[in-house]
Structures are given as structure tokens and as C-alpha cells.
Amino acid sequence: MRVRTGMVGFTAAAVAFTVLTGPAQALDQGPGQGQGRAQGQAQEQGSGKRSHTQQALDELVRAGAVGVVARSEKQGAVWKGTAGVADRTTGKPRKANEHFRIGSITKTFVATVLLQLEAEGRLSLDDTVERHLPGLIRDGGNDGRKITVRQLLNHSSGLPEYLRNQTFYDRYINLPGFLENRYTQHSPADLVRTGMALGQDFAPGTRFSYSNTGYIVAGMIVEKVTGNRYEDEIRERIAEPLKLRGTGSPGTATGIPRPSARGYGVGPDGTLHDLTELSPTVAWSAGDMISTTADLNRFFGALLGGKVLPKKQLNAMKTTLPDPNGFIEGYGLGLYTTTTKCGTKLWGHAGGIMGWGADAVTTEDGRHTLAASANGGADGFEPVVDAEYCGTKKR
């Protein structure tokens, strides 16, 4: 089963590992979106035109997405496709090389850094949170002495999802509250306290339940162990070695580097809002990063291809827990697995943040990658993934 995107934030708190833009509604046509709104452009390098993948992009736009962009790479052949618009006001089309917010795909980068630190002997996956962050988790029945790094990364910590805190959600995530508070700065510790105020979900290690709170704590451990900002560790350990020139954490910057599209969401009254500008501190190490389709393909291809982690750590990353809600087949350490309708097993992560949805997947050998982004209105990339790997746009 594919992960759906379009309902919840960098989160997956209530529905899946996805996006938050308010109620999931189709977007009415507006400026720059009349006839031909769904007509995309595909660019091919190498052999094998992926017309089915382009048709799937076009279909997402017809179904309500403002714009989508995708890139796949297989055996040296690169395919790039777009559909819809980047800006509803000007009608400017989306471009294949745009930057976009990747939401929860950030978690794969964070988990990778922690696994590299384990390979270096600087921490163990079985270390408790208390060992690295003494006194942080001691509220609402939550106890850092009983939660391990591994449990943070595979969402079995029992730490409650901070986006499930209704007061926080309505003020900073949901529309219209987001519009009034979009530039508010949040500290990681405050986000953790917001989650712990809900009590404990379950005893650590007893089951799987997606929690952004756990990945905020994971980012804090990266910083405590290294003495550096988590974004600096990602840049030095992953982005620079792999030459991911369009990838990084924005820190407190509220915009997106150019070229980029605008991010959109629909309010409860059906009004379309531009959600592009926001304080990424609302997500931090659970979902604040920005990237490109080319960079995501390179990262996931290298990761699953064994070029980023030693074999032991990659195997640990791919050791999964089942999702009782059935949104995915299994979640490992910042990585999930799923199977297409034609039986192709894929590894990757989906993500989103207000105004944006993204997905990045690859075959188990890292040789056939796909990354996609939607700037509002898309309710899942399943048709695009199935079109790419199965040769049909319908599930």
C-alpha cells in the first residue's frame, strides 16, 4: 500500500506521512489554469519515454493539484516531467529543477546521520535518551530512561505526536491559525514539551505509532553528540559528499531558494491560500528540509546502493515494524518499504509541510529512483509511482 499525501503535516500524525494544508479539497481553476492546465512537459535522456508517468502527473493536476514535478533515473537514463503551475497568480509553469519543501523526508537524513555516528562508535542505537539528554523526557508518564535511540527512529518510543495537541495544531498548523502565526519561532524543547503534555501513548518498544516528537528528540541527540547543529552534520556528512547542491535545512529562513514554486492550501471555507512563507522551526528535524528531485534521487539511490552507510547500519535501517493502520507495509529507521501494484518492492519516504507534498522512492538496489513534488492539492503520489514502475497510470 502506498502512503497517501495531502491530509496531514510533516507529520503523519492523523492520517499518513504527509502534508498539511487544511481540509483535503480539490482546487478550483484560477488564473493561469484554464484549458491546458494539466498539460505537462516531459524531457527524456536515454531510451524509453515514460509517457505513463507523465500522464499520471497530468491526472494529478486534473484531480486538483496546483502543480507537480517528477524525476526518475534508471540505468543512466534520466526522465523529467512537470504538470500544472508554479504560481497561480502568474500562471508560470512548474520547472523540473525547482527547490521545494520535503517535510518528513527530512527524517531519512536525520536517521542516516545517527546511523553514521553509531558506525563511528559515538553512540549506540540502544542508548537511552537519558544518556544523551538527561532530564528532557520526564513528563506525562514519558521517561527518557526507558526510550532508546532506535525507538525514536522507528516510531516505537511511545512519545505522543505533538501535532496532536489541538491547541498547537489550531494555532500553528491548521487554517486560519497558520496564517496568523506562520512566522512564530519554536524551540525543539518546546515542541517536545507540547507532545509530552498529551501523556504517554504506550510503553516504549511495544508498538509502532508515527511521532514527529521522536524525531525532534533525535535531532537534539545529533547536536548533543556532535556539538554541531543538526543541519551542519547533514551538510557535511551527506549533502557535500553526494554533491546535493539544492538540499539543506533553512534554519529560520522563511522562504525557499529560487527557482521554486509557490505552496498552496485550501482553508475550511474553500479559499485558496499561499502558504509558501513559514517558520520552518515548527517542524525542525522532523520535517524542515528543502531539496530538489535530482538531489533526492541521488541521495536515495546512494543510500540503498550501500554508498552512504556500512552494511550493518543499512540493514538496521531496513529492519521494519508493521504499521497497524496499513498506510505502509513496514517502517525501519527513517525509511519505509512498500510494494507497487505490479510487485516491485520500494524503499523511501514521503513528506510534506504546509503547502507542499513530496515522495522519494527507489528499488532495493538503488538503481531505479523516483522523486516527486506537488505544491498543493495532491492527495497522494500512488498513481505516479505505479506508472513509473509498472507502466500504467491507474492503480
Automatic annotation (TrEMBL):
Domain Beta-lactamase-related: start-end pairs: 58-381
Coiled coil: none
UniProt-annotated stretches for the region Disordered: 26-54
Pfam families associated with the record: Beta-lactamase
InterPro entries: AmpC-like, Beta-lactam-related, Beta-lactam/transpept-like
Signal peptide: 1-26
Signal in keyword set: yes
Regions of compositional bias (Low complexity) in chain numbering: 38-48
Entry keyword set: Signal
Source lineage: Bacteria, Bacillati, Actinomycetota, Actinomycetes, Kitasatosporales
Descriptive protein name: Alkaline d-peptidase
